Amino acid sequence: MAQNKNAQIRYKALDKCFANQYRKFYIDDLIDYCSDILSHHYAQETTVSRRQMFDDMDFMKSEAGFDAPIESVKDGRKVFYRYSDPEFTILKKPLNPAEMDSLQEALETLSRMNNIPGFDWVNSLQTKLQSGISTGKQRHQIISFEENEFLKGLEFLNPLYQFILNNQCISITYKGFSADKENVFTVSPYYLKQYNNRWFLFGLNHQVRKIQNLALDRIISIQSGDSDFEVSSINFTDYFEDIVGVSNDMEKKPEKILIQLSDSILPYIISKPLHGSQKIRGKILEINVKLNYELTSLILSFGDNMKVLEPDNLVKELKGKIKKLISFY
């Protein structure tokens, strides 16, 4: 097979498909993907034939090609294709020194993920890069992040990231803190967010037709779902704009909240705002947010350094929680 430019583009495109362990690529998917890549490259409609796809796979598997470990996996009546070795790629080549330095600087920041299951590739890549740098240049960690590597559910972080990246519907077995039994949800996953050292998945629950947040430490298992992925129109920057934390009741409206601050806490709140809407006049803090669990918990965490003045419903809720707390002692 001639090693022309067209073929090289197809091989690289197929390599990306086969290396993706979080999406099933059937023959029609491979044809569509390669056709799209070629059409974009040549700025004109280009279609790859079914015969060409099989010829390309045969060449990639051959010794004359790349010895690629392409396997076909039966999925009902259909077959999808992937690399049996998830680490394999036809694109492996050495990095130049400038690329190594740039990557190591980035990886030093990414090192906070070293202890998260599924992201151990960061540490592995750091080791590989370090071996290619001059032995006279000593490297040591100079930045640290608050991270709980023992937090339950971290092993789901990387798989969920991949499912989101590949628009793949998933089936989640989940047990909330107050639930009596496990539940199975079909979810189109959209977004991952860390809050208060916990990770949360945001996605469309197909059964109730609502966006839900699911704590990763309450997930029992995840697997690829059979339902079609439903694309989201939500801008998650906007989604979190009116809340503190992760709980967002879409039926609620933001409310003006006034809080009296103590002298000792005032400098802290100025330097570390509770919310982007924060305004401080004298000792009075004003924020405009929706009332939720995270907001009340945050206010209570400041103890007698904060006194909520309004709205009345928040004042009433906090009084109830404080009375219940006092009864414990």
Q: Please, could you describe this protein's structure?
A:
With 329 residues, the protein is an alpha+beta fold. The protein has four domains: 5-83, Winged helix-like DNA-binding domain superfamily/Winged helix DNA-binding domain (Arc Repressor Mutant, subunit A); 97-131, no CATH class; 154-239, SH3 type barrels, CATH 2.30.30.520; 255-327, no CATH class. It has ten helices and twelve strands. It has helices at residues 5-19, 27-42, 50-61, 97-110, 121-131, 157-165, 236-239, 266-271, 293-301, 312-327, and strands at residues 25-26, 70-75, 78-83, 170-174, 183-195, 198-205, 210-215, 219-224, 255-261, 279-281, 284-289, 306-310. The strands form three sheets. Strands 7-6-5-4-8 form a five-stranded antiparallel β-sheet. A hairpin with a 2-residue loop joins β2 and β3 (78-83). α1 (5-19) packs across α2 (27-42) and α4 packs antiparallel against α5 (121-131). The radius of gyration is 26 Å and the shape is elongated. The chain starts with a helix and ends with a helix.
